[in-house]
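Honest question from a wet-lab person: if I give you the sequences of every part of a complex, can you actually get the arrangement of the whole thing, not just the pieces? Trying it with mine:
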Amino acid sequence: MSVRHFVGDAVVAATPDFDRGLAYGDGLFETMRAHRGDVHWWPAHWRRLQRGAHALGIVLPDEDRARGEARDLLDGAEAVLKLIVTRGNGGRGYAPPEPATPHWILSRHDVPPATPADGLTLRWCRTRLALQPALAGLKHCNRLEQVLARAEWRDADTHEGLMLSTEGDAVSATSANLFVLHDGRWTTPAIDRCGVAGVCREWAIGALGAREARLAVTEVEAADAVFLCNAVRGILPVARLGACSWRPHPQVAQLQRRLAAEHPAFATEVA
Amino acid sequence: MSVRHFVGDAVVAATPDFDRGLAYGDGLFETMRAHRGDVHWWPAHWRRLQRGAHALGIVLPDEDRARGEARDLLDGAEAVLKLIVTRGNGGRGYAPPEPATPHWILSRHDVPPATPADGLTLRWCRTRLALQPALAGLKHCNRLEQVLARAEWRDADTHEGLMLSTEGDAVSATSANLFVLHDGRWTTPAIDRCGVAGVCREWAIGALGAREARLAVTEVEAADAVFLCNAVRGILPVARLGACSWRPHPQVAQLQRRLAAEHPAFATEVA
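Yes, you can. This is the full assembly:
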């Protein structure tokens, strides 16, 4: 892992004292898959970052500078690139400083291990997602719900956990979006009240013509096929969820091949 | 302002890279009033920190060490002391590292200006508090709701904003708890679904025999008296809220005198 910190245009050595990201989770982040030192989905990640910045009133760094620094840090690698942008420094108290200069952090991480060939094993999480339309969809840095949910299991044989909203509908995995197939039609949970507008989710909605809707637990368990997706790992077929199991489904395999054809980082992972 | 960072027992220069407080708001904080270099309510603050640490699975530093460092930093001052404790460093991903060594930060800040003599002017905030029983009551570092609410106004004549839950009941100000009087009985909103278990709130509940209950907007507006409270500023009478106004109430003045008698930091502020 390597990391670089910036405040506005300036390189700094570390997180400044009184950074509001640390104090309040007052920031946004993107986790991106890099291939040969470049981020194929950079434009989609930056668009989501812009939507979050607009909603929270956070100033973004210059995009060209950020992308240039990212390429320099990646240095041609296959890697995961993380970008955090916080509102910057403030004194004590919630009032956002005006003007604020963002603190932004680029870090390079290893590509995670490949998905099990037969698909993921999931569980249901007890920790639920609160309904907060003001933050729904954003990839902000208030992630205690996901932290608590991910802390519910430690066995390496469980790959992910599905989270319900506090009203009981299925929303997403702790770090991936959810798609289910019924009678030839794909559905992914709506993210207007909680959940994250995943970059791979957006791609998959377009590729599948999927609808966005509230999704009951029973609709997940009765699905003909289930997959998770995120921008780091692509399309992840689900094999097991509690007592339910699914065999590999040709539509999921087809979507993986389509992603591999469109996004070079995923080309090597499909048979 | 001055600040000191620690990781476990060790002094460090700054926030470590990959601190989970910065990445996810995965931490807790306390904001305390110090008088002559000591924190009168330290035991209550530490108890709340322990409750939060238990709920989130965060390891706390040694209490005696933390209090000793706090006294050293305060150096006899009248000040506000802030303590942040994060889960510590982690790699990428929500899974909490095991074992984790906490990062803790002590900082000293100026005492805020005195309250207006005739009471605070409040407004209602548009940003609402989501219902999340798993985090309710805790003073954790996921505070985007408060940041968004506090960003709703900038005029210096508005001192605080009241927040509703997403279901529409009145919960608290952005950085203070709320008490209302009806027919001789004090009520403060229940914090089992959202809101923070304030240290001064706990003291005031005991002092007043106040009940904890859901509170409608109309119950706030129709109250005989209203005050806010927090551990930094004590008891704050409310004079105005939108079109409503209240004259100074003898029970609020009496509570201020009682706090001044019990907590030396507030003794100088009461006539």
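Two things worth pointing out. Chain A has a mean pLDDT of 96. Chain A touches chain B through 59 residues (CB under 8 Å).
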